[in-house]
């Protein structure tokens, strides 16, 4: 077995050299990074396997035994998690800007058009459609349009412009979703079904407008799964948008569970901050537009929800190691095997609560 940097009191000698190692040597040399201290009782490594999944663990004191670490609720974001939708939202915004001939002071030749690069930055900076437009117009100047020939100056007129654009954009987005060309991201439906079959509570919490989220869920997860949700919240249901934790705090109350009994699935650092602020463990299923964000507060990150399997965890965990080291073994199978299972999330939650 390839050598690893571990505290002096910890060894991997229990794996005999004659038995096949569960971890390919190439993974050690090419995809493993472990940071450690000299104390095995307080050490919790930081491991990164770049072939598809990352589990990030940090030094933390052990949790009190009174804190529950049983998974009772699985909470999904919608845009970016259930469907990869940011390019669809950008298209709908640009169609709205063109329809109403929205022109900021610098838009002399054509109506406002958000580029893919700019929209990636914008949607990772500000949650919710109306806040995005309000921020943009404050930064770049309020526009002329077919709604207002001159740039609106009063708060009421500015609110009317944003409401008009958002309403039209929402309807355009619905048309795109109803076209039948949009599919759910890998692993989402299976994971939802596993959670329900295991008696877990299931929720969707999105910062988007309720009508657009309902349409997405009806078309992408189906009416039966949608009606079977134990909690559904949209941006209309809370005063503050993500990264404010209000939506997840509200979900916890509606579900009747504590924050430590929930796992949130998000795709962006904004969603991660909202979940963390509510005291919930969060896994990241990142997209191409969020892949480079800083997800150090997540308990795990995956390119989608079909990347790991629970069935081999027990076979690769070394009982001679302190429990806080078991996460070091788990990650190796994450990069090679298929089918993220409900058991994966239960184990991650146990690790997160134990380490918190």
TrEMBL record:
An example molecular function term from Gene Ontology annotations: hydrolase activity
Compositional bias per record (Low complexity), positions renumbered to this chain: 7-20
InterPro entries: CbbY-like (IPR044999), HAD-like_sf (IPR036412), HAD-SF_hydro_IA (IPR006439), HAD_sf (IPR023214), PGP-like_dom2 (IPR023198)
Keywords of the record: Hydrolase, Metal-binding
Positions of region (Disordered): 1-20
Cross-referenced SUPFAM superfamilies: HAD-like (SSF56784)
Family: Belongs to the HAD-like hydrolase superfamily. DOG/GPP family.
PANTHER family: OS08G0485900 PROTEIN, XYLULOSE-1,5-BISPHOSPHATE (XUBP) PHOSPHATASE
Name of this chain's protein: Haloacid dehalogenase-like hydrolase domain-containing protein
């Amino acid at each position: 077995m390839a050598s690893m940097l571990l505290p002096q009191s910890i060894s991997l000698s229990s794996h005999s050299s004659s038995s096949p190692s569960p971890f390919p040597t190439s993974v050690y040399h090419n995809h493993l990074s472990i940071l450690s201290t000299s104390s095995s009782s307080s050490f919790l490594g930081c491991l990164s396997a770049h072939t598809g999944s990352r589990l990030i663990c940090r030094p933390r004191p052990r949790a009190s035994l009174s804190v529950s670490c049983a998974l009772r609720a699985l909470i999904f974001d919608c845009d970016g998690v259930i469907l990869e939708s940011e390019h669809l939202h950008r298209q709908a915004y640009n169609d709205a800007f063109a329809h109403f001939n929205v022109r900021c002071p610098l838009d002399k030749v054509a109506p406002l058009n958000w580029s893919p690069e700019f929209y990636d930055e914008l949607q990772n900076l500000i949650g919710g459609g109306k806040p995005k437009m309000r921020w943009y117009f404050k930064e770049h100047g309020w526009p002329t349009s077919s709604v207002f020939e001159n740039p609106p100056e009063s708060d009421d007129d500015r609110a009317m412009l944003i409401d008009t654009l958002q309403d039209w954009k929402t309807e355009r987005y619905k048309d795109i979703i109803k076209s039948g060309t949009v599919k759910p991201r890998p692993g989402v439906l299976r994971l939802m079904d596993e959670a329900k079959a295991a008696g877990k509570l299931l929720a969707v919490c999105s910062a988007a407008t309720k009508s657009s989220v309902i349409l997405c869920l009806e078309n992408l997860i189906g009416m039966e799964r949608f009606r079977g949700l134990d909690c559904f919240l949209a941006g209309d249901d809370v005063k503050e948008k993500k990264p404010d934790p209000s939506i997840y705090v509200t979900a916890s109350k509606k579900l009747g569970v504590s924050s430590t009994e929930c796992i949130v699935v998000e795709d962006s650092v904004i969603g991660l901050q909202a979940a963390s602020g509510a005291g919930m463990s969060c896994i990241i299923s990142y997209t191409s537009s969020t892949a480079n964000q800083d997800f150090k507060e997540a308990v795990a990150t995956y390119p989608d929800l079909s990347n790991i399997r629970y069935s081999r965890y027990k076979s690769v965990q070394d009982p001679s190691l302190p429990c806080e080291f078991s996460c070091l073994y788990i990650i190796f199978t994450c990069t090679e095997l298929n089918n993220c299972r409900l058991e994966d999330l239960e184990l991650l939650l146990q690790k997160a609560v134990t380490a918190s």
